[in-house]
Design the sequence.
């Protein structure tokens, strides 16, 4: 099972303030621990939303609306993510609990989400069939 | 927290901590079996206490301290009877109150020692796999039994015997050096790849892929790559497993039928795993030694992974890689694959020459892929009647129901096309 530990944005991460050296090295140690346990798949940080772009579809069927950052709702902002592969939800939670407080001054928030897995999908013929139908629909007749 | 939820949480801690715990204990008591017993004792105590007290802040250190206490108790009780226990009572780190965290930096090395022990050449292949899954994977005997579709007592017995063998042979927990390292490492890699393949092309049972085994083999491989980062073949094997795993979703059809590499929908390949595989292959290459069998196989897999469409596959490069592989690990199966690559790169007639030479090999007599490949090449050359016969031969030889269906379908296609040819333009040979 794959999980994504999503680190939420804060006032500082949005202002482009770099995390303290102490926090950076704690994060590095944590990532090393994940790698040594063989569970780390990927980890990356994102630029502040000031350089982000949001695309919304306020009207179904109409053209999308394109908005430049920054965006305001800090809790909805993703500052970074770490993707792990584990055997259970509990194991993912245990790893998430070991991640250092991502900001260290009261605004830290990590969201743990399961990723749809190739094995979830291959294990269930119904899901596979549905996915195939959806793909055919998306690709249209003659699409490949 | 309900008891059930607490137990699941403790299981999770165990998955994360058990290998480190056993590895450290094994270094202290110099016996893998005893180390596991001590770790299990600590787990039992945790299962008793944690549902009430909650999981401690540093569960790993808690388990370690508890297991060490058990070891000291045991030692005191057995000291007079058993010289062995007395021996490690002296000068062993058991009695020192060293901070568990202080040794955290060396854990890679300890895990390495443990995996070298569980994959020791004195154990049978089955025993090595079971013991590795149990001690390094933190899997229960029941989980291992389910993954291998064998009765639980069988696995339990394999593990008990394996631990006994390690004790009896006084297998030391060391990291071998020089020429021995190569042999011992290849035993470890073999165990991981066997595990992976058992999951990847499930030889028995209804489901075609058993993800637990693949995932565990890959995880242990990634772990090994951190602990033995100077060994190109470790990265080679990891690269191979990453790239093969990237095709999981594409290699089984809606009805559960296998889909061959060339027919797979490449949009379903997992880009993250391909990227990881290519990076691991780069690490193997970066060590500047000649590529070994795993790295070469990974390089071949990488050629496929990098081709956007089946038609864009660089067959000439694949043929060259198979040739390199046949030099470091010669086998008729590698030769057969080389024949396929040659046929794809330079035409079926060249491939057929190699295949025909292989037909003489006694080991290939019962290998259904030989007639299958031969049939394919003959069909491409328009020799339909011969191709049909080969596909029928292959169908009779395979043990796998799905493969048999595929071979028979191809035989029928050849038959129909052969008839079509006769009706239309006569003999086109």
Sequence:
């Amino acid at each position: 099972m794959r999980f994504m530990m999503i680190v939420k944005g804060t006032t500082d991460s949005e202002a482009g303030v770099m995390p303290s050296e102490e926090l950076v090295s704690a994060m590095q140690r944590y990532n090393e621990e994940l790698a040594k346990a063989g569970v780390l798949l990927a980890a990356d940080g994102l630029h502040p939303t000031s350089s982000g772009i949001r695309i919304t579809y306020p009207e179904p069927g109409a053209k999308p609306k394109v908005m430049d950052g920054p965006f305001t709702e800090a809790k909805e902002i993703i500052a970074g993510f770490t993707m792990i592969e584990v055997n259970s939800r509990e194991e993912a939670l245990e790893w998430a609990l070991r991640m250092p407080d991502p900001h260290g001054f009261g605004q830290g928030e990590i969201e743990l989400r399961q990723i749809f897995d190739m094995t979830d999908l291959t294990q269930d013929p119904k899901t596979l069939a549905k996915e195939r139908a959806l793909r055919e629909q998306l690709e249209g007749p003659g699409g490949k | 927290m309900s008891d059930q939820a607490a137990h699941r949480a403790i299981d999770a801690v165990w998955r994360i901590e058990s290998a480190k715990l056993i590895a450290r204990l094994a270094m202290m008591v110099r016996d893998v079996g005893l180390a596991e017993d001590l770790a299990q004792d600590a787990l039992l105590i945790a299962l008793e206490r944690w549902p009430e007290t909650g999981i401690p802040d540093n569960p790993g250190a808690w388990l370690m301290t508890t297991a060490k206490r058990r070891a000291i108790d045991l030692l005191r009780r057995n000291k007079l009877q058993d010289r062995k226990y007395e021996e490690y009572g002296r000068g062993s780190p058991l009695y020192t109150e060293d901070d568990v965290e202080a040794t955290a930096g060396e854990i890679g090395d300890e895990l390495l020692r443990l995996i070298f022990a569980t994959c020791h050449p004195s154990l049978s292949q089955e025993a090595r796999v079971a013991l590795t899954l149990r001690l390094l994977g933190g899997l229960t005997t029941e989980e291992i039994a389910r993954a291998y579709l064998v009765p639980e007592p069988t696995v339990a017995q394999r593990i008990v015997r394996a631990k006994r063998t390690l004790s009896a042979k006084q297998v030391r927990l060391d990291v071998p050096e020089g020429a021995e390292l190569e042999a011992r490492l290849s035993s470890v890699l073999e165990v991981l790849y066997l595990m992976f393949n058992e999951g990847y092309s499930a030889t028995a049972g209804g489901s075609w892929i058993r993800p637990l085994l693949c995932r565990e083999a890959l995880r242990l491989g990634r772990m090994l790559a951190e602990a033995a980062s100077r060994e190109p073949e470790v990265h080679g094997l990891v690269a191979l497993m990453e790239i093969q795993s990237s095709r999981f979703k594409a290699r089984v059809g809606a009805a559960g039928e296998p889909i061959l590499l060339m027919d797979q929908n490449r949009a379903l390949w997992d880009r993250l795993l391909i990227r990881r595989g290519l990076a691991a292959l780069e690490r193997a290459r970066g060590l500047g030694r000649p590529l070994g069998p795993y790295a070469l196989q990974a390089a071949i897999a990488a050629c496929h992974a990098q081709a956007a469409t089946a038609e864009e596959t660089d067959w000439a490069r694949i043929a060259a890689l198979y040739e390199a592989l046949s030099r470091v690990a010669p086998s008729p199966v590698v030769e057969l694959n080389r024949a396929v690559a040659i046929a794809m790169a330079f035409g079926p007639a060249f491939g057929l020459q190699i295949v025909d030479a292989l037909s003489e090999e006694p080991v290939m007599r019962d290998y259904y892929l030989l007639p299958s490949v031969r049939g394919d090449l003959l069909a491409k050359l328009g020799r339909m009647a011969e191709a049909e016969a080969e596909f029928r031969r292959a169908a009779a030889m395979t043990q796998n129901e799905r493969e048999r269906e595929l071979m028979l379908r191809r035989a029928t296609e050849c038959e129909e096309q052969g008839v079509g040819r006769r009706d239309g333009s006569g003999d086109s040979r």
Remarks:
- The longest helix of chain B spans residues 3-29.
- Residues 1-98 of chain B form one domain.
- Residues 137 and 216 of chain B are 7 Å apart (CA to CA).
- Confidence is low (pLDDT under 50) at residues 95-106, 422-429 of chain B.
